[in-house]
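Please describe our next protein:
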Amino acid sequence: MTVWVEIDLCDGCRRCLQACPYDALELKDDKATIGDRCTYCGACIAVCRNNAIQTDAKPRQVPDFSDHQGIWVFAEQHDGQVHRVSMELLGKARELSQTLNQEVAALLLGHRVADQAATLFEHGADKIYLADHEALGAYRTLAYASVMAELVHTYRPNILLMGATVNGRDLAPRVSRRVGAGLTADCTALSIDPDEGILLQTRPAFGGNVMATIANRYSRPQMATVRPGVMEVCPSSGRQGTLVTHRPLLDEAQIGTELLERIKQAKTACSLPEAKTIVSIGRGIGDVSGLDVLRPLAKALGAEIAGTRVAVEQGWIPPENQIGQTGLTVRPDLYIACGISGAIQHRAGMMDARFIVAINKDPRAPIFQVADWGIVGDLYDVVPEVTRQLLEMQSSRGLTCAPEGT
């Protein structure tokens, strides 16, 4: 590929110099010249008003993908129970299907998991591709990647969505490589471009400082992993659909790993993704003693306690209680941010809360820009007073403190 300047057409306006991200152009005798640093990105061609910069590169043609139909969701399951994020994705897939007019399908892989089909139909699936095999009883990367690649090659979906869970993040790039498709990881929003009809995949970039929207025009399926808690679960009772049984071609010798023992992690009382009320802490609490002020409020509200990355790094809360870009995404009815400045990395994890209350002594804190209600003041003064009034109101109405976690 070659890029050159038609000297007779160049008027030395310098627009191309300003547009070039590599400083590959310069003016000589009031005419643009292209140097060795040119990467043929085309930025200069786009801004030249006189068409003085030209190239022999041919525009890339978008292939015909009309034979790829359907919006697929990988129905991740553990011990025969479908993961919540899969049901969230089915709800989003139904929304996307209204624009594309394509059916929603779930991929159910495992052993003796057919009884979960009713749950998937209820949450939005028109069709379920069931791969039942002993080798799929417990998650193993190569076994699951092999079966999913078989299904993609056989049935040719348009879109494939997976949860950005531990297993999803491990599996998605393997499948992407096997089917020759692009993958956008850790998305927080999905939509359909009204002009091209392709999937627009939005994810945080540069440490969460910007939101990038990515489109895959040149391969299918359009693949994305989505953070748990970002989408809403939208069950619809009485839904039914079609169950397609796929007999996978699996060989233990090719899988390469053998499961010797499963050690289950002990469950904690914290259940932030399902919590209706969350009291969250940030750097502003000062030290761990601030939790003594916040726990009575959380108990009175029946709330879970969470926090920012700083709160985790300081050892005030465990890592599994972190909200934000590098933690969890939550959608509670009420989110109370105490001593949280509101950096974009944290806001990415709690922006979808129904109501946000911010308590901060800095009136210019960014958290007030997204809060429904804001209290400017020292949380060590504000929180005890809020708790006192809440308890008085509950007492006057004959109520008791809600149990924690409800």
Remarks:
- The two ends are 63 Å apart (CA to CA).
- The chain has three domains: 3-55, 71-255, 272-396.
- The domain at 272-396 is CATH 3.40.50.1220 (Rossmann fold).
- The chain has a mean pLDDT of 88.
